[in-house]
Design goal:
The chain has helices at about 10-20, 30-35, 50-55, 105-110, 135-140, 150-155, 160-170, 175-185, 195-205, 210-220, 220-225, 225-230, 250-260, 265-270, 275-280, 295-310, 315-325, 335-345, 350-365, 375-385, 400-405, 410-425, 435-440; strands spanning about 25, 45, 70-75, 75-85, 85, 100, 120, 125-130, 140, 170-175, 235, 245, 280-285, 290. The chain is of the alpha+beta class. It folds into four domains: about 10-135, Beta Polymerase, domain 2; about 140-225, Hydrophobic Seed Protein, CATH 1.10.110; about 235-390, Hypothetical protein af1432 (Orthogonal Bundle), CATH 1.10.3210; about 395-440, no CATH class.
């Protein structure tokens, strides 16, 4: 019998239910990760105790759902203890229309998504594995419990989750399971975009995100989730003025692969950086393929994607800037004002991430060296410029000066005037002069 190393908080819960004469099992990804000797991030339990009985055993728990799940705050995060249940039909491809309690853990495991997640570990360290999940773990296979089509019809998010889990664990998806994903791909449209986004970001956070995107494409899911990326495949950059010929879609995958950042949002930006090429592709008289203003077009598309995934305002701004301004010029001889414009466009907080996207773009385009000597010089110039004043608050005048000079009250006009002055200082630092600005205010 294996002796699994469990945190004290987990042992405490197992002990309390055992003392109260109830069955209690660790289930789901926690068991899978224990068996794989991976770090467990989410601890889930199932028991034959009803929700009200769970709350008697765990008086600090909270219960605010109809699925029998009691939450308990702990140092490990929220621990979830759910009454063993059987489920009825899923009419909306998201939630069961009815549930019923059971005292058989095998029946509870039968409703789960994949065999590797349908293993239970008892308080006595005994495994319950009715679907041979341990065997699939050993063979590195993601396989649906029972009939794959039924599993995906029940909860269509499982279509992406299968690929996400396979990507994270570096597993293969069992053939019948993958065919069922392809067959049911359209069902993903029934799922809220926030849930899709969360799965996509988990996939992008894995060690091999580009492989996950390839699987999404093969399954027919990419064209639904990110049609802007799907459309990039088949568009080839070629011509006498291009030293390399490559498919834009494949280049985007490689850019994702080689981007050094592990931030899923930065990785998404790397994947999206050339989506504007789809609508801007042209062939000139010499046979050269061009994509003029694809950065502008891509920036607009990134805003649509951010809205689709319901990204926060901060995330939206970051994604837009990384896509819109990825085509920046690297020149060690650029003036301070040019570099200030770059910093303003990209955002000080996004400079490192923009450099990561550029590295992915370079390596994904076939360049052997991640950072050129020009890039190194450019980054050094950025550091030098950043040491100098670089915000509206650094101007030699402020809002009160504007209001006094123009005899106006506080309002949007004051901010617009300060921004105009700041833009001028970006171009010519010598204009950050109080006397000049007080005169300039009157002409704006």
């Amino acid at each position: 019998m294996n002796d699994y190393t469990l945190p004290n908080e987990v042992k405490n819960i197992l002990g309390k239910f055992k003392k109260a004469k109830f069955q209690i099992y660790i289930v789901g990804g926690a068991v899978r990760d224990l068996l794989m000797k991976r770090e467990v991030n989410d601890w889930d339990f199932t028991t034959d105790a009803k929700p009200e009985e769970i709350l008697k055993i765990l008086p600090n728990g909270f219960y605010d759902n109809k699925f029998g799940t009691v939450g308990l705050e702990s140092k490990l995060g929220i621990l979830e203890i759910t009454t063993m249940r059987k489920e009825g039909q899923y009419k909306d491809h998201r939630h069961p229309t009815e549930i019923g309690w059971t005292n058989k853990v095998e029946e509870d495991l039968a409703r789960r998504d994949f065999t590797i997640n349908a293993i239970a570990l008892s308080a006595n360290n005994q495994l319950v594995d009715p679907f041979n999940g341990l065997n699939d773990i050993n063979n590195k296979i993601v396989k649906a419990v029972g009939k794959p089509v039924k599993r995906f019809e029940e909860d269509a998010l499982r279509l992406i989750r299968a690929i996400r889990i396979a990507t994270q664990l570096e597993f293969e998806i069992e053939a019948d399971t993958f065919q069922a994903i392809i067959k049911n791909a359209e069902l993903i449209k029934e799922i809220a975009w926030e849930r899709i986004r969360d799965e996509l970001f988990k996939l992008l956070s894995s060690d091999y995100p580009y492989q996950g995107i390839i699987k999404l494409k093969e399954a027919g899911l990419l064209q639904i989730i990110l049609p802007e990326v799907e459309k990039c495949f088949g568009i080839v950059q070629e011509g006498p003025r291009h030293d390399r010929t490559y498919d834009i879609g494949i280049h985007s995958l490689l850019a994702l692969k080689y981007t050094p950042s592990t931030d899923p949002l930065v990785r998404l930006a790397a994947l999206l950086h050339d989506i504007g090429k789809v609508d801007t592709v042209k062939t000139d008289s010499t046979g050269n393929v061009t994509f003029y203003n694809h950065d502008v077009a891509g920036g607009k598309l990134s805003l649509e994607i951010a809205k689709r995934f319901n990204l926060s305002k901060k995330q939206t701004d970051k994604l837009y800037r990384l896509v819109r301004w990825h085509l920046f010029t690297v020149d060690e001889n650029q003036t301070d004002s040019a570099i200030r414009r770059f910093i303003k466009n990209v955002g000080i907080e996004n400079i490192e991430d923009m450099m990561a996207v550029r590295v992915g773009d370079r390596l994904g385009g076939g360049t052997q060296k991640a950072v050129s000597w020009r890039m190194e010089k450019f980054e050094q110039r950025i550091k030098e410029v950043l040491k100098k004043p670089f915000s509206i608050s650094d101007l030699k005048i402020n809002g009160n000066d504007v209001m006094q000079a123009l005899e106006i009250k506080s309002g949007p006009k004051v901010g617009k005037i300060l921004q105009k002055l700041f833009d001028e200082v970006l171009e010519d630092a010598s204009k950050n002069n109080r006397e000049y600005m007080l005169q300039r205010i009157k002409t704006i």
